[in-house]
Amino acid sequence: MRMRRSIAVLAGTAALVTVCGCSVQDPDRDGTARAPTPSDDGRTASPSASARTTTDDRPSAPATGAPPPAVLWSRGDKGRDVRELQARLRQIAWLLDGPTGTYGEVTEQAVKGFQGKRGLPVTGRTDTVTWQRLLRMTREPGEWALYPMGGQPAAAPDPRCLSGRVLCIDKTTRTLRWMVDGRTLTTVSVRFGSQYTPTREGVFHVYWKSRDHVSTLYHSPMPYAMFFSGGQAVHYSSDFAARGYAGASHGCVNVRDETAIASLFAQVRNGDKVVVSW
Fold this sequence. Notes:
This protein has helices at about 1-20, 80-90, 105-115, 130-135, 145, 240-245, 260-265; strands spanning about 70-75, 125, 165-170, 175-180, 185-190, 200-205, 210-215, 220-230, 230-235, 255, 275. By secondary structure, the protein is α+β, with helices and mostly antiparallel strands. The radius of gyration is 28 Å and the shape is elongated.
């Protein structure tokens, strides 16, 4: 009789283990990925491919007894990491403008909306859990998704720019440096011609300045025009100011900062060198 009871108890215990299970479940992976780490040149290392899965729009179960996640960025922060955050929020329609690189009220509200939608604490601060969730729902933004309206950093100047008075124009970083004797005085974002009307590369010189110029070919205004190669000039573009890199010039070098181009126009002289390079 006792043996039968023992067998029954053992059988019941085995059944309970089978029903309930006793394997350890993997913890929620939100919050385990590290934020991008700025490198020495100011750029941000890409998150690992394993951290960037496709889409996960499920609400997160709140952790109990766990320490609060570390805050990566919050209102007032600036830099390329903030640009990446904004670019990723744009991909899923939580931001419409930018990126600007500045964590202001608009970004804070976008983060709050993103957090609330996914059952995360609505703080407006980007912590490790929020960032991990955003990584899983977005793709890594390209360089021009980070700088759709300009503001990108300039690279080292072309060696031909290191002497004399030079408008040093770099097609790779889309920047113009105004340099005198190897020293950079001003740096602005610029836009170039399309593949059908490309901006010429090489070494040129400013041969004519026209403050209120209007194109005789396209009948479009070209304020603060500084001509350096045929009809190609450095000039202010209201279209560039409005649409950023969504458009292109007819071969000229467009500047979107009117204050900056007005200052350049006052400083640059006929005969000053112009270097356009990749």
